[in-house]
Amino acid sequence: MRDDSPTLFTMPPGTPFLERLALTLLDDVTLGGRFAGGADLAGIVILLPTRRAVRALGEAFLRAGGGRALILPTIRALGDVDEEELVIDPRGLASEALELPPAMPALERQFRLARMIVEGQGERETRALALAADLGRFLDMVLTEGADLTRLADLVPQEFADHWQITIDFLKIVTARWPEELARLGYMEQAERRNHLLRAQAAAWAAIPPQGPIIAAGSTGSIPATAELLKIIASLPSGAVILPGLDLDLDKPSWDAIGDPGTASHPQYGMKKLLGHLHATRADVEIWPGAGCSARGGARAKLLSEALRPAETTEQWRTRLAALGGDLTAGLKGLTLVEAPSERDEAAAIALMMREVLETPGKTAALVTPDRKLARRTAMELRRWKIEVNDSGGEPLEKTPPPAFLRLVAHMVAEDLAPVALLACLKHPLAAGGEEPGRFRQRVRYLERLLLRGPRPAPGIEGLRNALRAIPEEKRRADSFAGIESLIGRLERDLAPLTEAMTRRTALDELVRLHAAATERLATTKEEDGSIRLWKEESQEGGGVQVSSQAYSMSGIESLLNQKGSQPVWSTQTGQFYAEFKSEEGR
């Protein structure tokens, strides 16, 4: 290793990354004297790729500490964070770095882009919303990579220029009009803002190195601004960068081939690109103290390295596979190939294998897959044995009970209390209407039997009341009849503000608030307020924050439609509630 080389580590594949990181720092916080002798655990700053990794590392420290009291390091996430989390040490930051305009909320951006598409391209409003979401993702990708939008016209050869010009004209929304709109409103793009803050932090640490150790772990620097920060951290006197699973054994011709643009999908491509940015080679990277893997794990890593060898050097398989010998056999040991006839059978087989693990105390299992549908199917299969798994990809917000209930309330109101929509909402587990949930469901059953198992009542609350009055005296039971009357009265009180707003032109932010308030009232029980029931779980608190933040982001946004007779119909997309506008002619 060169004396001026950056401080770089890696952990072999198969090493429990966060567990080993915590154990090593608890064992020797100075890393064998690399950090200053006065360093302590609380003085270390650790940067990780995601917030989930931040939580997991905190738990790993607690486990590694054996339950004893610890003052943990400062642990922060590099991606998808707020400004307060990015700017860890403001010393040395230029004043303009701390005075950036706020980022435009994602939903507001989607609506404003959609309006530009409607005005400039004549698209229907519902299609404009989808196109606006795609434009937003395109904009995020371009800004994240630091690419120049003005060079789009030069991407296509001249013979395709006429066809490409149609696309260029459409993209002028983000290349020309959108920057002007952001400047007018006093906003900037979230990706651009993050890049500014990351680069400002890198410049600050380069100018005034922090007093304590800085460790960046698990990031491959796929975002250029993050790579700049990692470069500064690796060069600090008390800085270190830990790469995840760098292949130190891959032969040089194969390693060199990975640098070609056509190999960007190779798992080592990002780390090779980062090493080049750091002006380092694999020889400059050390194994993290204490990191290692079992003989089988090492053999499995070699097998995977060969399987993922770049196409340019696959001719070496003839000699390499023979040379691997026992490692090849050991690497294959324990591997099972399952060919399932359907996706459902695939999930069931995986769930069964994971269930079997529980028969051995202390044994754990994990499913690693980029297929979100497969992950969700497997989780559902495991629930058959009452096993709840922790999905690192999370669960789509609209699939959790509170947002599902919000959708049902909106659908019920939009359908004027039509029987199917009404029962779907009132039979949801969160529906209580101010009663004990059991008693409320009993009244809903009375309502279904007496009013909804025949001709459809007239729309709205009055339709239900008229249908109730029309029931012959001989079919009325005092307790059930009174219960239905009480239920209809409760529905009227809970839904009145929302149903009234749906009959007139209402600001979108007000509609969101009325929708959420009506849902919370319907979720209220005798003992617990609906706002608490809806959002009390940690995974659901984000939903409450999201609905309120979206109401705020939509404040002041004018309707996308100006045509007469437009009605807002609530829908969901990626767990977010927004207005999907449809005209009466389109129904």
Protein described:
The protein is α/β, with parallel strands linked by helices and 587 residues long. It folds into five domains: 8-96 and 194-292, Rossmann fold (3-Layer(aba) Sandwich), CATH 3.40.50.300; 106-187; 294-335, no CATH class; 343-394, no CATH class; 398-586. The chain is 51% helix and 7% strand. It has 23 helices and eight strands. The strands form two sheets. Strands 3-2-4-5-1-6 form a six-stranded parallel beta sheet, sandwiched between helices. Helix 7 packs parallel to helix 8 (224-235) and helix 20 (478-501) runs antiparallel to helix 21 (508-523). The longest helix has 25 residues, at 161-185.
Question: How are the SSEs placed, and which strands pair?
Answer:
Blueprint: E1 8-11, H1 17-27, E2 45-48, H2 51-64, E3 74-77, H3 83-86, H4 106-121, H5 125-145, H6 161-185, H7 190-207, E4 214-217, H8 224-235, E5 239-244, H9 252-257, H10 269-277, E6 285-287, H11 295-307, H12 317-324, H13 326-332, H14 343-357, H15 372-382, H16 401-414, H17 419-426, H18 437-451, H19 460-469, H20 478-501, H21 508-523, H22 530-535, H23 538-553, E7 567-573, E8 576-582
Parallel strand pairs: 1-5, 1-6, 2-3, 2-4, 4-5
Antiparallel strand pairs: 7-8
